[in-house]
Amino acid sequence: MTRKEIVIIHPRPSSIVAALYTLRDLNVDVAIMHGPPGCSFKHARLLEEDGIHVVTTGLEENSFVFGGHDRLVKLIKKSIELFNPKVIGVVGTCASMIIGEEMHEAVLEANPDIPVIEVEVHAGYPDNTKGVLYALKSALDAKIIDHKEFERQEYLLAKATDIEKRFGAASREYLAPSRGDIKYKVAKRVIQLIKEGKKGLIIMNAKKETGYMFADITLAVNEVAATLGIQKNLINMANIDTMLGLPRVRQHAEYIMRDLKAHGIEVHEIIGGMDEYPITGEKVSELVKDKYDDYDFAVITGVPHAIPMENIKHMELISITNGPRQVLPLKEMGHEHVLVEIDLHPKTLGVSKIVESEFGATLREIAKEA
Amino acid sequence: MKNQKIIAIYGKGGIGKSSTASNIAAACAEAGNKVMIIGCDPKSDSSITLLRGVRIPTILDLLREDMDVKEKNVVFEGYAGVKCVETGGPEPGIGCAGRGIIVAIQKLKSISGDLLKEQDLIIYDVPGDIVCGGFVAPVRKGFVNEAYIMTSGEYMPLYAANNICKGLSKIGMPLSGIICNSRNASREEEIVAKFAEEICSQLMTFIPKKSIVQDCEREGYSVMEKAPNSDIAEIYRKLGKAILENEKKNTSNSLSDKRLRELTK
């Protein structure tokens, strides 16, 4: 009955940050962090680019010793004054949780007349999805999401955690970061495959807003094929169902669909919603088995390790991830070419249209030369 | 919903909270109530006299070993069917005992939610010194609905009791009564009754100092089990009943140090 888990020593996503991103997906206007000034700075800053206000109680040594209750009460009031929000979130941190701060008491005392999502979270959880779960649970309590959506999300999170442990960055004690293969070489190979008349699957299985950049690769491969006059050999799959997920996530799907259509790209198979990246694998697998078994290559973007190898292992696999620690696991799974879009996430925050990817740009340049 | 009593007993360390708590628990259980005692002291000895001197595994012992903690691993039935739980804690001087209490009571709530709801009386036995946020977690997390303070008539325990009053009113927890555990100080009952009156509370009972309490404890028993016919057993029975029936709670005042000195002169 002892839980056996490996201890991972490389730096990894934090559950506080996961809670912050979830609050953003729930369309919170202000996220109040109850903790030290620099806690989660990098992501807090990025989230501001994504249109939500992030503020901190900035606890220092004295607050650790004497408590930070008054600061939180003041900051809740001040945030309401400054930003006139419709919904706010209050997020715990390691420091405030260890000293036993009761954020709920501060909320009661500030007594705002808008809903507050209180997330009692710190960064000491091996699975950072705990932060998402706690935020969703509080949103459920605050009646911001319904029970059905909560259960759906809970299921997706369990699947996502499972995939990361089996094939992802949580699959072993230490994974060295890597920039993957050279984009120039792989772009040449893709163009060669298209030229040779090989049949290819372009599969986007992206996590939420990262799709704004991964969709550019779908776009670029199709453009290149169109330039060469052989677009018919390509089948596009994408997890951009506009009817699934939280409102913000559906909107991403709508924008991406709109942009792809504007470029005349047909998405032949919709494989799920943009939060369903952990469960689209089975669907892709079945589709391949039933309809596309004879395809020669596949370009898989986003979360390629969520697609089971069984039915695609005979194809030449070109994967594009945004996780530098995902390269080795993908290579070991049998993906021949693995590319990393470095710093993808920051570029996909605060946008509402497809943004250029390095691999997409490389493909387009080489196609011009050809 | 039934009228569930979830109490915490505060007071200076060594004043007799744990032995009184286990005797009250035993007395109420004998009278047919469902009772649970949750020891929140890292020393983990709140329920030991209900378990014939045997130490039980604590919630934090198991969490430290990465065990998947189940109710049956941490809730043990003691004398008269009292459910006994110990939160446990780190070794003295290491880690953070306050966080330990928070984690342990949250774990207990998640594994024993139904059992907690079933009880007529739950006693949280908390350490005397509320040195950090974690030690008031049972109260602040909304688990406790009544607080009692135990003191003798001596100056130092009264001083501690007075400080606890300040603390309780600071966190908005009303006080349900004062329990006097005698240390044979002069005019003891009178002093403590006066103290209770001046802080706007009530004296629940006066427990005289009797060596039989110590004798029973040394052998690993509560008074209720080992000496059920003693006078003091009857006092615990009455106190238990009074607590179950008590409906009075007040936000407590606290006294100035000057007044406290005058009172104990």
How does this structure look, described?
The complex is a heterodimer of chains A (370) and B (265). By secondary structure, chain A is α/β, with parallel strands linked by helices. Chain A has 2 domains: 3-167, Nitrogenase molybdenum iron protein domain (Rossmann fold); 183-369, Rossmann fold, CATH 3.40.50. Chain A contains 15 helices and 10 strands. Chain A has helices at residues 15-25, 41-49, 61-66, 69-83, 94-98, 103-110, 129-141, 147-167, 183-195, 211-227, 247-262, 280-291, 327-333, 344-347, 358-369; strands spanning 30-34, 53-56, 88-92, 116-119, 200-205, 234-238, 269-270, 297-302, 316-321, 337-340. In chain A, α7 packs antiparallel against α8 (147-167), α9 crosses α15 (358-369) and α10 (211-227) packs parallel to α11 (247-262). The longest helix of chain A has 21 residues, at 147-167. The radius of gyration of chain A is 22 Å and the shape is elongated. Chain A starts with 14 loop residues before the first helix and ends with a helix. Chain B is built from 12 helices and 8 strands. Chain B has helices at 17-30, 59-64, 71-74, 97-111, 113-118, 137-140, 155-170, 188-198, 211-218, 223-226, 231-245, 257-264, and strands at residues 5-11, 35-39, 76-77, 83-86, 121-125, 146-151, 175-181, 203-207. In chain B, strands 3-4-2-5-1-6-7-8 form an 8-stranded mixed β-sheet, sandwiched between helices. The chains are: A alpha/beta (370), B alpha/beta (265). The interface between A and B is medium-sized, with 12 and 17 residues.
Number of helices of chain A: 15
Whole-number average pLDDT of chain A? 95
| CATH fold-level assignment of the largest domain in chain A | Rossmann fold
Q: List unreliable stretches of 5+ residues of chain A.
A: none
Order of SSEs of chain A: HEHEHHEHHEHHHEHEHEHEEHEHH
Oligomer: heterodimer
How would you sum up the major sheet of chain A?
6 strands, parallel
Separate helix tally of chain B = 12
Q: What pattern of helices and strands is seen along the backbone of chain B?
A: EHEHHEEHHEHEHEHEHHHH
C-alpha Rg of chain A, in Å?
Answer: 22 Å
Strand content of chain A: 5-15%
C-alpha Rg of chain B (nearest Å): 18 Å
Shape of chain B: globular
Structural class of chain A: alpha/beta
Q: Count the beta strands of chain B.
A: 8
- What number of structural domains do the residues of chain A give? 2
